[in-house]
Each structure stands twice: as structure tokens, then as C-alpha cells.
Amino acid sequence: MTERHEPKHEAPRETARAEKASNEKASKSGGLLPGILKGLATTAKTATQRTHTHEYPDVAPDLPPRSRGVIALLEENCTSCMLCARECPDWCIYIDSHKETIPATTEGGRDRQRNVLDRFAIDFSLCMYCGICIEVCPFDALFWSPQFEYAETDIRDLLHEKDRLGGWMETVPPPPALDERAAEPAEVTAANKPPRAARAPREPGAARETRAPREPRTPREPRAPRERPT
Amino acid sequence: MTALEIALRSVAVLGAFLVLPLLVGQAEHKLMAHMQGRLGPMYAGGFHGWAQLVADGVKFAQKEDITPRAADRWVFRVAPFVALIPYLLALAALPLQRDVVAVDVPGSAVLVLAVASVGALGTLMAGWASANKYALLGALRSAAQLVSYELPLVLAVASACLAAGTLSLTGVVEAWSPWWLIWQLPGALVFLVAALAELQRPPFDMPIADAELVMGPWTEYSGLRFAFFLLAEYAGIVVFSLLFAVLWLGGWRGPFDEALGWLWTLLKGFAVAVLVIWFRVAWPRMREDQLQRLAWLVLLPVALVQLALTGIGVVMTR
């Protein structure tokens, strides 16, 4: 019985609460008339203040850090590993390369092979600026540049080759400073690591003593077959 | 009146009809932009985009003038002119100074009101002839709106004319005294609100509510015919602003009114137009039922009370 009654009581209570809230809201804003006057006052106040417009072609916009304008290529770092082209969701990266053989430098050594990049092109009419290629590049060959003024009148002219992509490297900003108390970059940690101390030559007696607290392994082995039959 | 004089007066009215709405439109562009923290047009014409509306006009003239296949062709094509030309006639009857008026008729207040309400017929024709559900809904909304707001509008003007004892707008300004600012205040407010609704300007722009009805009766229009509807809207603002200035703000009455009277009328009218623009920026659109409630339960009683008040005032003072 009580369960059936509850919703009946609940509904009027809820509406009463809502009404009370709306009344409170109305009294707080002062009813209808002051509300519309407030609207007039707000717009009038805004009209007297400075505008926020940047007149773009005349004034360069203040772009936020990490702006995604265009993807720049640092050709020297590219190993034509194709990771970016494979990860690209809409397949807008085109890479051609060939292998070159570097003859061995020492007598009797092995010849080495090296990838040489022939073509690296991004079709910006397909690119959706997801940045996955930049994330995935293991050799830091791709970067975000804030440069955005590369509109064309023909969509086919948006396919940019490696010389154009490399030209945008100049516009790539330096990496932003690390956050306060962030971990050091991996490269710095690796460089600052103290060199390994040289190992002392092994002495049979000393080695035994250090290993003494460990349990000897050999007696353990026969235990396993004994437990299995149970 | 010679034929030459008639031609000159017609050209003068036509010039005012083409220039004043553009002034109001440009004022709206700039004022609205600054009220929203923007700059508005800055390039067309060089100095602060003064020629933006001229450029817009050129753009509209270049666009294709499309008539939908299902449309009632003749009505569809005539509708923009039915919306536009009545305001031209109304402008001709509005006095700027004692003798600066194109057509001085004895009942000019009646003429202006009658002619201005014809303009709404153009909206209705456009909506009906477009063969488009949004256009039709918009036209029906506009018809409902005009029926409701015509009455308080006429009553408010009747009150001003009753106070002046004449139906001539020139006569009303001659009879005007600063006391009217208090005595006729309710009527003036009713007129302002009803004129906003009559012009279908925000917050009373339900007929062209773009979130619900695309562009209302104008949905199917393009090119110059669409531009004529826009021009009609701004010409309407000019007509109603000047009418407000003449009836309630004393028209050309002010310092040096012998020489600069026309300027006073224009300045007062422009101030009212700025108010109309300001309302558009500041207030959201009302709902259809709220609009009808406001007209019948607030404006009409206030207009009737104002009429009674004016009657008492006139009887007491004469």
C-alpha cells in the first residue's frame, strides 16, 4: 500500500518544488520588465566596449599554441618506414622510395642497405588534420605547423610534394615548455644516466657468499613429480 | 501644381525612399555588430564599409530570379511590389516640416495608416503564391499578427489625432506640446510595440522565424525580388519611425525649427529607428501565443484607456 501511495504524493511535491524554484528565479531576476531592460542594458554596454574583431587579412590572428595548420616534413629524419601512410585514416600520404647499398667500410665487412626517399606527398584535400601521422612517426619527421594560408582555387593543387612540405618546417614553432614538475623527456633522462660501473672480476668464494641467502634450486625439482599423483 | 512640380516632388520622394532605408540598414549593420562585440562591414566603399548595402544591392541584381514551377506565377511576381510600393506612398504623405511634404492631404494620418497596412498584403500574397509550406505558414502567421496589431496601432494614432483635434499630420505637430510626452506616453508605447509587430521585426518576427520556417514567406524568393522585400522592411522602419516622431515627439519642433525643422524630424525619426534596431539585438523572439496575448490582453486595453484619457483631457481643456 505504501508503495502505491508514494508516487501520488511525490508528483505534487515535485511540481510544487519546481514552481517554488521558478518563483524564486523570477523574484531573483525581478520579473519580466526588469529582465527586458537588463537585455537592453547588456547590449548597450557591449556597444560601448572595444570589439573583439581581428581584421584578418590586415591583422594576423593570434593562434593558440599547438595550432593545426599544416603538416611539415623534415626530410632528413624520414626513413620511408611507411608507418604514417599506413596509419593515415583516409590514405592521403603518398610515399615512394628505393634502397641504396652502402659498400662495407671495413675489409671483409657486410654491405649495408639504406632507404632513400623519392616522393613524400600529402593530399590536403583529403587530409582531415587528425595528426595521427605526426603521432606515429618514430623518427620525428612530421610536425604541426600553424601556417594555414594555402588555399587553392583548384582542388587538385592541394596535393603538396615534399619540397613544399619541407618549406613549412621554417614555420614550425619550438616545442612548448614542459609542464611544471613534469617528468624529464626520455632523451634527456637517457643522456643524463650515469655510466655503468665496471664489474669487479669474479671470485668463486665471494660469489658463493652473496648467493648464500637464496634457496638452492636443485632440491626443489624432485618435489613436483611427487605431488602430481595425488 | 504644375507637372514639373509633381515630377520634382516624386523624384524627391523616390530619392528619400531609396536613401533613408539604406541609412537605417547600415545603422543596423554597424550598431548590431558593436552590440555583439564585432565591427560589422569594414571594407566596401573604404571608410567603415559605408557602401556595404550598395554592394549587397549589386549582388542581388546579379542573382538569378527564380520562380518555382508550382508557384502562382503572376501573384508570386507581383507580391514584392505590393509589399514595397505602399511604403513609398506613405513616405510621400509624411511631413518633414510645415511645407516640406510631397502630398499634403487633410487626412494624412489616415492615409499613412491605411497605406502602410496594405504592405502586409504583399507578405500574404508571397506566402500563398510560393506553393511552399514554410511560406504559407509564415504568411498565415503574419496575417494573424497583422489582424491583432492593427487595432492597437490605429487606436494609438486615433488618440494622438484626438488630442490634436485634426487628422492631418502637419496639424498634429502644430498642436503638439511637450506635455504630450507624459499625457500620450501609454499611447506612444502601444504604438511602438504595435509598429514593431506590424513590421515583423524581432521580437515579433514569427512570420519569418528562421529556426522554424526557413525564411517564412520569403523562402522561395531570390535576386531582386528578395531585395525588394528587404527594402520594404527597412522602408517600413523609416515610415513608422517618422510617423512616431511626427505624432509623439513633435516632428520638426525644436530650436531653429524655421530653418532646420526637417533635420529635427529626421533626427527624431532616426532615434526611433535606432530603438527598433536595439530591440532586435537585445530581445529574443516571442512565441506565437505570447504575441496574441500581448496584443489582446495588454496593448488593446492600454490603448483604450489612453483613448479615454485623451478624451477626458480634451474635454477638460476646451
From TrEMBL, chain A:
Keywords: 4Fe-4S, Cell membrane, Iron, Iron-sulfur, Membrane, Metal-binding, NAD, Quinone, Repeat, Translocase, Ubiquinone. Its cofactor is [4Fe-4S] cluster. Pfam families: Fer4, Fer4_4. It is found in: Cell membrane. GO terms for cellular component: plasma membrane. Binds 2 [4Fe-4S] clusters per subunit. SUPFAM superfamilies: 4Fe-4S ferredoxins. Its EC number is 7.1.1.-. It is a peripheral membrane protein. Residues 1-34, 167-230 are annotated as: Disordered. It is an enzyme of class 7 (translocase). GO terms for molecular function: 4 iron, 4 sulfur cluster binding; iron ion binding; NADH dehydrogenase (quinone) (non-electrogenic) activity; quinone binding. Residues 69-98, 118-147 form the 4Fe-4S ferredoxin-type domain. Residues 1-27, 200-230 have a biased composition (Basic and acidic residues). [4Fe-4S] cluster 2 binds at residues 88, 127, 130, 133. Belongs to the complex I 23 kDa subunit family. NDH-1 shuttles electrons from NADH, via FMN and iron-sulfur (Fe-S) centers, to quinones in the respiratory chain. The immediate electron acceptor for the enzyme in this species is believed to be ubiquinone. Couples the redox reaction to proton translocation (for every two electrons transferred, four hydrogen ions are translocated across the cytoplasmic membrane), and thus conserves the redox energy in a proton gradient. NDH-1 is composed of 14 different subunits. Subunits NuoA, H, J, K, L, M, N constitute the membrane sector of the complex. This is NADH-quinone oxidoreductase subunit I. It comes from Knoellia remsis.
UniProtKB/TrEMBL annotation, chain B:
It is a multi-pass membrane protein. Its main location: membrane. It catalyses: a quinone + NADH + 5 H(+)(in) = a quinol + NAD(+) + 4 H(+)(out). It is found in: Cell membrane; Membrane. InterPro entries: NADH_UbQ_OxRdtase_su1/FPO. Keywords: Cell membrane, Membrane, NAD, Quinone, Translocase, Transmembrane, Transmembrane helix, Ubiquinone. Pfam families: NADHdh (PF00146). It comes from the Bacteria. Its EC number is 7.1.1.-. The chain crosses the membrane at residues 6-25, 74-96, 108-130, 151-173, 179-197, 226-249, 261-282, 294-316. GO terms for molecular function: NADH dehydrogenase activity; oxidoreductase activity, acting on NAD(P)H, quinone or similar compound as acceptor; quinone binding. NDH-1 is composed of 14 different subunits. Subunits NuoA, H, J, K, L, M, N constitute the membrane sector of the complex. NDH-1 shuttles electrons from NADH, via FMN and iron-sulfur (Fe-S) centers, to quinones in the respiratory chain. The immediate electron acceptor for the enzyme in this species is believed to be ubiquinone. Couples the redox reaction to proton translocation (for every two electrons transferred, four hydrogen ions are translocated across the cytoplasmic membrane), and thus conserves the redox energy in a proton gradient. This subunit may bind ubiquinone. HAMAP family: NDH1_NuoH. Belongs to the complex I subunit 1 family. This is NADH-quinone oxidoreductase subunit H. It comes from Knoellia remsis. The lineage of its organism: Bacteria, Bacillati, Actinomycetota, Actinomycetes, Micrococcales.
